[in-house]
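Standup notes, structure subgroup. Blocker cleared on the S-adenosylmethionine input:
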Amino acid sequence: MSQDLQINSLSLSLSRYPKDAASDLRAWNAADELLIEFAAELSTIPQHILIINDEFGALACALLAHPNFTNSHISWLSDSFIAQQALAQNLQVNALDASQRLTLLSSTDTMPKAELVLMRLPKSLNYLEHQLIGLQQSLSNDSQLACGAMVKGLPKSVFGLFEKHIGSVTTSLAKKKARLLFGHYAGGKSAALYPKAWNIAEYKWQLNDHANVFCFGKFDIGTRFLLEHFPQDEFESVIDLGCGNGLLGLHALSLYPNARVSFCDESAMALASAKNNVALNHPEHLTRCSFNHDNALQHQADESADLVLCNPPFHQQNTISSHIAQQMFKDAKRCLRAGGKLIVVANRHLGYHPLLKSYFGGYKLLASNNKFVILSSTKR
Ligand code: SAM
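Run returned:
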């Protein structure tokens, strides 16, 4: 559902992506409002603005619509496919022509020079650290860096990371439970810390993960459990849905020597990590792989797979929700051929059983322990 963001004389109609008529969750929060107010009050208008981690495009839309910034160029950097789609949708609805004034960048791109950086605090501290190190390329001593955060999601360690990689930090007053951190760049240069090499000895895997990947540098216990219960069969077309660093797809490449494996994730760093990890462990199988930046399986052809492996997320950006899992199960059903299987690992308390029953007409319990269940549904 669309809602109107009103700040000073600005009025924008904004919605999340995908649009959900039943949801009244807004496409911006109080931290975005503080960032927009801060930018609008600047006495010197920046030529180059860098926006980072804009969840649903509210920051970019507000600056593009604001009369102060008609001659500014905006670079917009995000890891998220959903954020990119939300931005495109909100630009269109508000008739904002961004073609000459906006450059889209991925999380793995180098950060451009900017006099003003507006960023939303990312959830992952590793990713924050990666971004602060990257910002050393874009900031000069005169640049302004404002980072918007909700007070409850602002651990003390964030200040330490700013001090280590940027310089001193000051803060705004809190307003509607949000505040801004201002980083004053002192000119330091840190060694790059990401992507980071690690390994999983029991599978003899060498890994190289980007900063914003799920369970960075650790072996998730749900993933481990599913790896131990892979179906023993012949498959031709396998999807690692929500692939993270690609461990499920990596195992599928070894177990199913004739299968094409499609790695799908909404995070660009997840896909870049999965690609790194296939290249490190099975370079000879790269030609059997594809890496797809997508929202669930939106761009995957109908009836094109015979196995979908999925350890679904239970939040979108900062909001806990089962709607991504639902979307994934629904898309998996559409993309599976008759007789194809969806295998899901999940915390027992998440109770995905009724969802699978409603989409597939049933499910089998393949394995369970005190924390997880592995469920399998077959397309009829
Ligand atoms: N498969 C990996 C594993 O088992 O280690 C990662 C699982 S992690 C619980 C869920 C993954 O889903 C994350 O990598 C996240 O980026 C991805 N994800 C979240 N929302 C998504 C969406 N809408 N479409 C595709 N992937 C999504």
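Discussed briefly. The radius of gyration is 22 Å.
Next: hand off to the docking folks.
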